[in-house]
Amino acid sequence: MSLTQIFATRADHMKASEIRELLKLMAQPDIISFAGGIPDPALFPTERFKQAMNAALSDGRHAQSLQYSTSEGDPGLRQWIAGEMGKLGIDCTPANILITSGSQQALDYLGKLFLSPGDTALVGWPTYLGALGAFNAYEPHFDRLDAHANRSAGDYRTTSAGRGGQVKMAYLSVDFANPTGVTLTRDERESILDLGDELGCAVIEDAAYQSLRYDGEPVPPMLALEIARKGSIEDCRTIYCGSFSKTLSPGLRVGWVCAAGPVIAQLVLEKQAGDLHTPTLNQMAVADVAADGFDAHIAGVRAVYKERRDRMLAALERHMPDGAGWTRPEGGMFVWVSLPKGLDGAELLEQAVAQERVAFVPGGAFFADGSGRNSLRLSFSNSAPEDIDTGIERLGRVIRNALVT
Ligand SMILES: Cc1ncc(COP(=O)(O)O)c(C=O)c1O
Description:
α9 links the parallel β6 (202-206) and β7 (238-243). 42% of the residues lie in helices and 13% in strands. The chain contains 14 helices and 13 strands. By secondary structure, the chain is α/β, with parallel strands linked by helices. The chain has a 7-stranded mixed beta sheet with strand order 2-8-7-6-5-3-4, with helices on both faces. Bound molecules: pyridoxal-5'-phosphate. The site of pyridoxal-5'-phosphate has 14 residues, from α5.
């Protein structure tokens, strides 16, 4: 008997992505890869982190930085985050903040908190692949959340009841979404808050890219809009997930949740059971670096990514064939390309890697129902501007070839 036969049923829901093997190919040095979606390491504030880590280990502070700490997180860091939230219109106190090991951990904990097997999570079509992975372990069904579709709460309720559960959450990557680069308008945010109220479900606002705006007007976070409606964070159903991964460093694994007190209290219990706390030294270093020069650092990061975004949009304009469309993100790391029906992103990737040494992520991976195969996600954050020009030219050739064959 193999142990695989006695895995819990939830293991059936944890599927390796069909594109994982293809993505491994992209580590080859001569490939121009738009697949990653990761920060450029040249932009990490490395010197500041050296100083901060050094300080946290000097003058007796090792007794704190190398020690166990509270599950809620570093008090100074929570205080600083609460202040930043306030600037966004989210009136809260450190008691409304839990530090997590990246926002990915927050998604896992929120899945664990709300989803019983058979419940429904509303997600975008497409949505962040990591959110599907995090929620999947809790054996939910997914239904399509579309701010334009005008589906009524009753319709969602009937569908979820037919599948033996209840709509428990609506999950959205709100600003410069992964994978589309699209930002929800204020009206869309308001209408999803209405839907959340009608359904009585949690609204999970994934703000991983929120600080990376290059142009256009900032849109208030959903949690800020809900506080404006209801008067207090304690009456809100929106749960805001933030991250330092895209601004300071993803390797340190520091993110946060901002929500009503009872939600934070329950997540603290999960954190205690899960990993006790996010590494103390990392939290202290992030608190130090964030408190001194954060805005100036982000301004530098934005300037670099903005140039790369502009470069990619201009190259797409030059090289994409008729029939291809793409998003024009105001920030973040991604452009989403839609191709004529019949083209398949996964097949194109094989050809692109073999013939032109260029890579991307096929869009089908981001759809809970496996649709959307005629789309691609391109990331501009970690490519030099010249590589963006060359890579998009190559991609244009691959798509043209596929259209004529
Ligand atoms: C939309 C979105 N949410 C959450 C995450 C997880 O980020 P982290 O756990 O590093 O904070 C990512 C990472 O790429 C993401 O794109």
